[in-house]
Amino acid sequence: MEKRGSLIGTSSGEFDFTVERTDVSHLDVSNEKQNADIIALLLESWICLLADSPLNKGMCSLKPRRVFARFKRDFLTGPLKEFVLEYASYADEIVSTTSLYGASSLTGRWLPEMRNTPIFKEYHLWYYSGDPVLLKFILSFLYFGKKLSYEDSGLNAVALREWLGTEQRLSSLRLDEQITAGMALITSNLVSGFEIEPVWPKFGPGKVSERGISGVIDKANNLVFDAKIDYLFFRGLLSGNSAGVEGVGLRREWVLPDPDRWSNASKVTERVSRQKFVPKDVGKTRTICMEPNTFMFFQQAVMRSLIRAMDQGNARRFVSINDQRRNQRLARYGSAFGEIDTIDLSSASDSVSVELVKALFPKRVLAYLLGTRTSKVRTIDRKVVEVKKFAPMGSALCFPVQCLVFTTVVIYAAMLVAHGCADGESLPLDSPWLKDVDRSIRRLFRNKPGPRLGSGPLFEPAAIYGDDICCDGKLTATVTHLLTLLGFKVNTEKSFTGSCAFRESCGKYYHDGEDVTPLRFRVRRYWGKIGPKSVASMLAGCKLAGDNGYFHYRKLLVQRLLFGELEGVGKYHGRNSFKFVNDRNLSYGIFTTSEPRNDHLDVQYNVDLQRDERRCIMLTRESFRRPSKIELWAVEHYLHTRWWGSRAGVVSGDFTFPASRNGTSGTRLIRNWLPD
Prior knowledge:
- This protein is 40% helix and 14% strand.
- By secondary structure, the chain is an alpha+beta fold.
- It folds into three domains: 7-144, no CATH class; 155-224 and 269-511, no CATH class; 561-675, no CATH class.
- The strands form six sheets. Strands 4-3-6-7 form a four-stranded mixed sheet, with helices on one face. The protein has a four-stranded antiparallel sheet with strand order 8-9-5-10. A three-stranded antiparallel sheet has the order 11-12-13, covered by helices on one side.
- α4 (80-97) runs antiparallel to α6.
């Protein structure tokens, strides 16, 4: 890979920050050294970020050359994971101990360990000034390497042990029936508008448990029969009538791409999902599961019905599935005034037990939740385990059910506090708070944060997004207690309460009302040539680096995009033909705030359109094969019936199935002519 601009100006001369694969190979724990390229880029990027300190003037760092050399030496000394996590631990200490509510100076604990970091001067100045710009840079530098896309098979064994430990914890869980009975009344209210029709099943974007199935056409051709699903949606199990029983069941031709294949005489699906590990950060692997193709198809329908019910009922006051900004706004308010806390959970998805779901949800909803649920998981060591969790991460129902459960917890906690119940006590089922849940929610929660006026609602608004919970500080202790009783573990390191000046929710960090969200290194791992997913992450990184004023780091990413070796495309005049754009909504180009010239791109005149066009690199979905006419007819027929049904009021919603090629989750780089 060609290196360009590998020198940084310092107060004592230029510093060469070039890093080769051989320099970092000893830090790579993968068997085939797959991490070497991304580790080298991390170190170069980290050094560039160090040169982007807010204390600098222009593009020349005011730090001496020895500071950069020492940081590079410490990084290469390793081990990598320990080095990255040590820096991240300093940031964790800062955000968990700092408070500033009306005080003239910070009261957080002074960290002498920061003397050993190259940003001690920035830390010292921030500690006595509270400058949010300095704080954002400090957190960015300390957290920078934690999200490294890193292959470490040793983390998989740890993740498997934790996953099995959660299962063991849930197997010994005993729910308080008095508490769950009261909470069930709240959950029933939240999903009171649930109706399975109009139905909207669809194929999910990710992989399924069956091997060798990729893309919509493969998924459409591999829908196989399941008796419970057949009875739930079509009522055809007992009668054998594909048109339904007295209009109760759905017509199969309205729902299935190829209804002729839906028969117990054909292949029957397994109710077993397949376990998979994906990197979460440099020190931890996340456990997810790939659901069977048929189950994912119908889970999407149930998910849509749940979301419709949530959007139409009281749940919309607490949850917005497609918008994290509500949580972020409340977190910002909490950091400024301390009246709203943010609560985070550990392994929340795996801790929603099936027994809890059975206890909370009404039977008419529960039938669809359990009917599309896989009760067994094939682990990475090929063992089949019957699970106690309701749904693993990877199920379409995991997230909405999780949101409903935590919304119920917050509402029930508010009722307990308003009723004057102590921790451990349950609310009487004949309590006025439970008799009219609609009225209780209006009396308990304000629509907007702010001071209480007169006899208005008792508590600040609450927001739930997955395991990110924002609630009134007066409810935090009760919410935490209830979560523990229901089998959840509160992550105290990422929960910010009381006088702590920080709040964090949905990826946004706030300190005393200021946005101090750190910039992290999120470039996708690549090996040798840079692949399309890595290119997409670099393009996003360029935009974020520019927004934060980290121009050395942005310049490095731009150089890698222009001069690096890419998969599938060659260079033009010694450069990769990426287009510079000043529209931040164009994700295929390198964003710049100035007027782009793009002189490095090949130009041609389009006679038909009478305009100049430049050829640039774009990302497109990869196609492995052209489907047969029969396959095309099946999908096109499915799309047509879906469209017709939406017009007739039978089904509703959009669809995302390509009718021309077999689109998969993969992407590739191509060159395309675009207007100048």
